[in-house]
């Protein structure tokens, strides 16, 4: 079942359950933290941006997340050619959602964090998402020291995004509200070590992963995302499963020229031999067939027993084809992007 929700509405009803589960082409659900039937310690909120250079073969990932009992901020730079990544993180405890993340992905707002290791600011103004960041002591994969920049992502008015609202079978008051805004072209400047560059037109493309929810204690999910340009047309996809009850809808979509083409279930085909061997991805409707060749496994594991996060975010290249709703076949060749397998207990 792929239930598409088209009408704007409150996310949760009077019992704290999702009023209408499914997927949407635009942000139709209105999230209010006070409507969540759970302690603030159980509510998860995050804004995550990933920007990928098609020519430079790198990805920059920026995170501001507030989990109630703690907040996590992160800057990561992934170098596909060198097969390495650099990352710096900061944590604050018992933030209780005072970080300032907005209740809506569409409203203008600003959220910023800083400490001795990093600084990050996300600013939304109309159709622009301005990312300001720096980590002066971060040692990059090429040996250079320091990263900073100001990059603007341009969100075209009317462009469709992937939105999903689903709950868990074991607890219908546990919910996942998520929007993926793919294929946003980037402009601005980036300094890596002593090298400052102006981003070339149509080279760097960004995705926003905007999420709010109350989760169950233990979860494992699979997520893949790509944003770029093929034959002069913005192209990307969002694929994922394993997180919440996806009976109402999947989050599997292809983005082409600002429109969504809906897919059925996708299997990541992760080889038993390990994450760094080629993945063979297929969809149940035969419209998504990709080989994913890893270049970097950004593996991190935090284990405090009662709290654990084991993440394999793998960056590499996609080759294959997708079939659009009208039957057109889009061929994909060496598109830099990522996929992940994450286990969380928190």
How would you describe the overall organization of this protein?
- The chain has 346 residues and is mainly β.
- It is 0% helix and 61% strand.
- The chain has one domain (9-345): AttH-like domain (AttH-like fold), CATH 2.40.370.10.
- It contains no helices and 24 strands.
- The protein starts with 8 loop residues before the first strand and ends with a strand.
Key traits:
13-stranded antiparallel β-sheet, AttH-like fold, 0% helix, mainly beta, 346 residues, 9-stranded antiparallel β-sheet, globular, 24 strands
Annotate the secondary structure layout.
Elements: E1 9-10, E2 22-24, E3 29-30, E4 43-53, E5 58-66, E6 70-79, E7 84-93, E8 109-114, E9 119-125, E10 128-139, E11 145-154, E12 162-168, E13 171-192, E14 195-198, E15 204-214, E16 218-230, E17 233-241, E18 253-256, E19 259-262, E20 266-267, E21 279-283, E22 288-303, E23 308-323, E24 329-345
Parallel strand pairs: 1-3
Antiparallel strand pairs: 2-12, 4-5, 4-15, 5-6, 6-7, 8-9, 9-10, 10-11, 11-13, 12-13, 13-14, 13-15, 16-17, 16-24, 17-18, 18-19, 20-21, 21-22, 22-23, 23-24
Distance, first to last CA: 30 Å
Structural class: mainly beta
User: Helical segment tally?
Assistant: 0
Number of DSSP-assigned strands? 24
Helix content percent band = under 10%
CATH class: Mainly Beta
Major sheet: 13 strands, antiparallel
- Beta-strand share of residues: over 45%
| Domain count | 1
Uncertain stretches of 5 or more adjacent residues: none
Average per-residue pLDDT, rounded, comes to 96
**CATH overall fold name:** AttH-like fold
**Bulk shape:** globular
Tell me the CATH superfamily.
AttH-like domain
SSE order? EEEEEEEEEEEEEEEEEEEEEEEE
CATH architecture descriptor text: Beta Barrel
What's the alpha carbon Rg, rounded to whole Å?
A: 19 Å
């Amino acid at each position: 079942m792929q239930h598409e929700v088209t009408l704007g509405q409150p996310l949760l009803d009077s019992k704290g359950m999702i009023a209408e589960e499914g997927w949407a082409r635009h942000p139709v659900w209105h999230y209010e933290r006070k409507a969540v039937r759970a302690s603030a310690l159980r509510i998860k909120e995050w804004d995550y941006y990933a920007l990928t250079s098609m020519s430079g073969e790198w990805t920059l990932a920026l995170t501001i997340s507030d989990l109630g009992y703690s907040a996590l901020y992160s800057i990561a730079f992934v170098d596909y050619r060198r097969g390495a990544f650099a990352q710096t993180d900061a944590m604050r405890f018992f933030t209780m959602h005072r970080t300032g993340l907005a209740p809506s992905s569409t409203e203008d707002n600003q959220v910023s964090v800083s400490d001795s290791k990093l600084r990050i600011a996300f600013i939304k103004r109309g159709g622009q998402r301005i990312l300001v960041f720096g980590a002066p002591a971060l040692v990059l994969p090429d040996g250079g020291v320091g990263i900073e920049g100001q990059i603007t992502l341009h969100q075209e008015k009317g462009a469709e995004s992937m939105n999903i609202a689903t709950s868990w079978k074991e607890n219908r008051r546990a919910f996942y509200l998520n929007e993926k805004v793919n294929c946003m072209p980037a402009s601005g400047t980036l300094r890596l070590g002593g090298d400052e560059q102006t981003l070339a037109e149509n080279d760097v493309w960004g995705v926003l992963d905007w999420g709010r929810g109350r989760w169950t204690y233990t979860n494992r999910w699979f997520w893949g995302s790509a944003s770029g340009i093929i034959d002069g047309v913005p192209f990307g996809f969002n694929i994922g499963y394993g997180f919440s009850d996806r009976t109402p809808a999947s989050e599997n979509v292809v983005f082409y020229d600002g429109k969504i083409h809906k897919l059925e279930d996708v299997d990541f085909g992760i080889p038993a031999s390990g994450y760094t061997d080629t993945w063979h991805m297929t969809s149940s409707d035969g419209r998504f067939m990709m080989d994913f060749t890893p270049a970097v496994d950004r593996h991190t594991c935090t284990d405090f027993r009662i709290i654990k996060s084991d993440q394999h975010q793998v960056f590499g290249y996609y080759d294959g084809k997708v079939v659009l709703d009208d039957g057109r076949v889009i061929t994909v060749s060496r598109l830099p992007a990522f996929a992940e397998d994450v286990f969380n207990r928190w």
